[in-house]
Design a protein that fits this description.
The chain is an alpha+beta fold. It is built from 11 helices and 12 strands. The chain has 2 domains: about 190 residues, Jelly Rolls (Sandwich); about 90 residues, Homeodomain-like (Arc Repressor Mutant, subunit A), CATH 1.10.10. The strands form 2 sheets. It has an 8-stranded antiparallel β-sheet with strand order 1-2-3-4-11-6-9-12. A hairpin with a 2-residue loop joins strand 1 and strand 2. It is globular.
């Protein structure tokens, strides 16, 4: 299915035969452009971007709400053979990549697609990553990088405020620039907190096994996942998987999985249908006391207090 739309100025409106919604563009400055996507499709839409023949003038950073099992396919050619990598994302977050290879992706049908592309002029982008060794190591300009950062609370707030800006607001342009720029700042700030890593292993950076490991961790919440199981499923050595996972997500495999389970426990507490023992069992903690201890260490409050009082408003 082709992308049918009508463009008027900086707004692209979706053809009614495909769905409803629009893409709005904002030229904030010579260094920053923002694209705001907000549309609902009747059917899934498959997009293919061929291999780039000229270097990118702008470096995009994507912020959004990808649906469960949304997939970007990256095409690599090795010795004339076409190899397709499936890169799966299913949580709110931001990703930045400089790949110039052929890629394709799918917009979901039957639900609203909302995401932001903040495009930074290459020279301006380099002023951010040049400020620390951690950023320079993760965003190496002479290599292909994929750097994903899940939304923290502040990034969630900024993202939703962007979609609260009215199209007829007299300060629409200024608000978009403020919120978009702050999203970028929080993205780099959070990534800069990662432990600086120097890669000594010179194998090519293959993102697919890392994303597969993450998907396994997101799918299995009722028990801890062993590193042996992950390495067999992903086809990487333990040391390689540990290194690449931390490079992309900024945390260890164990900590990432524990944080996912704790995040799910907050959902259970909000719903109020399960006891502490049931939540602990549902999420693979050895006991309710173990769950309570880990929860308090993460959120500085016990699950009981979190459920009963003011902590419930936090997302």
């Amino acid at each position: 299915m082709a992308f049918k739309s009508e463009r008027k100025g900086d707004v692209i409106t979706l053809d009614k035969s495909m769905g409803e919604g629009e893409v709005r563009g904002y030229k904030c400055s010579e260094n920053i452009e923002i694209l705001k996507f907000d549309f609902l499709l009747h059917e899934p839409l498959h997009i293919n971007r061929g291999e780039l023949q000229i270097p990118m003038e702008y470096q995009p950073i994507f912020f959004g709400e990808p649906v469960e099992n949304s997939i970007i396919k990256e095409v690599i050619y090795e010795d004339g053979e076409k190899i397709i990598q499936d890169l799966t994302f299913n949580s709110n977050g931001a990703i930045c990549t400089n790949t110039e290879r052929e890629i394709s992706w799918t917009y979901s049908g039957g639900r609203r697609n909302r995401f932001i592309s903040v495009r930074l002029k290459k020279e301006y982008f380099n002023t951010f990553i040049g400020r620390s060794n951690t950023l320079m190591n993760l965003f190496k300009q002479d290599d292909t990088f994929f750097v994903f950062e899940e939304f923290d609370h502040q990034m969630k707030v900024l993202f939703h405020r962007i979609y609260e800006v009215k199209n007829d607001d007299i300060f629409e342009q200024e608000l978009m620039q403020v919120y978009g720029s702050n999203l970028v700042l929080h993205y780099f700030e959070n990534i800069n907190k990662r432990e600086s890593m120097i890669e000594t292993n010179k194998y090519p950076f293959n993102i697919e096994p890392v994303m597969k490991a993450r998907q396994i961790l997101l799918n299995i919440l009722d028990r801890p996942v062993s590193i042996d199981f992950l390495t067999k499923e992903c086809g990487l050595s333990e040391s390689r998987l540990r290194f690449l996972f931390k490079k992309v997500f900024g945390t260890t495999i164990h900590q990432y999985h524990q944080d996912v389970r704790l995040s799910r426990s907050r959902d259970f507490l909000h719903e109020g249908k399960l006891t502490m023992s049931m939540i602990a069992m549902e999420l693979g903690f050895s006991s309710s006391s173990h769950f309570s201890m880990v929860f308090k260490k993460k959120y500085n409050v016990t699950p009981k207090d979190y459920k009963q009082d003011r902590y419930l408003w936090e997302s």
